[in-house]
Amino acid sequence: MTPENQLLEAFAASEIKCVALVDDAFDPPSLSGDTMGALLELIQSTKAGELAEGIVLSEDLRTAAIDQLLASEYEGDDVLAIIAMLFRAYVHTGNDVFDPDGQFATLKSSNLAYVTPLISLLRKCDPALNIVICGSTPSDIDQAARAAQLVFMDFFLRAGLSPDGEPNLDQEEGARRASLERLKGLITGPNGGEATPAIVLMSSHEIASRVEKFRRDLAAEQGNVFTSRFHFVNKKHFTRGQAAEINVADGSFDALLSIIQTFAFGLVMHSALLQWRSGAREAIDDMWGDIAALSLKDFAYLTRFRLAQEGMNLSEYLEWLFSEALVDAVGKRVKWQNDAFAAIDRKDGPAHRVRGAFDGPTTAIAAIFDR
């Protein structure tokens, strides 16, 4: 089975219905005044309605943009809005009918070349995915992107940055920070008690060694971003083959296949752990209320009449007492009846759908147990 077919089969078996891609390649280009005549002809020949899935041109915007072009208001809000809409339709469909005088292809070809094979792959999914495409700056499309279960995020998010050239240190840090801020604005906040979407960082540059640092920075500010639901793919690993087939090189194929196949298990496990964390925080607050109500005489009595006779320090006793009480409080506060716990306990649940080779016993859980 080809990599494409394996990925399509995995998507079909997953619970992923909505995917968002965020990349500066999707920023509409600035068109010169020489192109405005072709743009006017294109708008006049385009009927109001749905240009592509989820991209609807209203008659009001169409008429207003025509009026501004006829008045030579090339930077008018309606002109810029319709350029952005036509560019989105061009990216979604790849149809030149939305490209005024071929300028989209001319100005954005190098950037789009590395992301359109991935879009083509996603468009082959059956059942069809809801694919949301976002540029580097917030827009009205972001609301739809926040519903995505899987987000592909460009590591260097900066308009005009070459996909092949090496950015200098200032450009690199600025673009990485922009990506971090953009992603923070699209994923669910930690106070909502909901799992964030699965995230795939992508780049045409060799930045695989920096992915975990990016995740840690995001988790430090966002709170609930798990390594198990955070991967990286190289855009250059997605290429067009024979008969419109999409080829995917091994490293990116493994990463994408893993996050798709483990999506259901990762989602319920993430949700269950967030439920545990919420209950643990409530338990700590409950315990602190009980501790704050103790008087100094309570501690003094322990020290003078109980612990001194048993040869135990007060700090040792408090460590034992509070630990035991906290375990009990956590057990009572965590909502163990939540559907997420039921899902991870099922014998035929999503944990049993995780495929691939296992590298042996886990050492990470053993390290937590031994603390």
Write up this protein.
It is a single chain. With 371 residues, the chain is an alpha/beta fold. Helices cover 52% and strands 11% of the residues. It is built from 15 helices and 9 strands. The strands form 3 sheets. Strands 4-1-5-6-7 form a 5-stranded parallel sheet. It has a two-stranded antiparallel ribbon with strand order 2-3. The longest helix has 30 residues. It starts with a helix and ends with a helix. About 1% of the residues have low confidence.
Total strand segments = 9
- Beta-strand percentage range: 5-15%
Question: What structural class is derived from the secondary structure elements?
Answer: alpha/beta
State the end-to-end CA separation: 45 Å
SSE layout and pairings?
Blueprint (H helix, E strand, L loop, with lengths): L2 H11 L4 E5 L13 H10 L3 E4 L2 E3 L1 H12 L6 H17 L9 H10 L3 H8 L6 E5 L7 H4 L4 E5 L14 H18 L11 E6 L7 H12 L7 E5 L3 E3 L5 E3 L1 H12 L1 H30 L3 H15 L3 H20 L5 H7 L18 H6 L2
Parallel strand pairs: 1-4, 1-5, 5-6, 6-7
Antiparallel strand pairs: 2-3, 8-9
Helix pairs in contact: 1-10, 2-3, 3-4, 8-9, 10-11, 11-13, 11-14
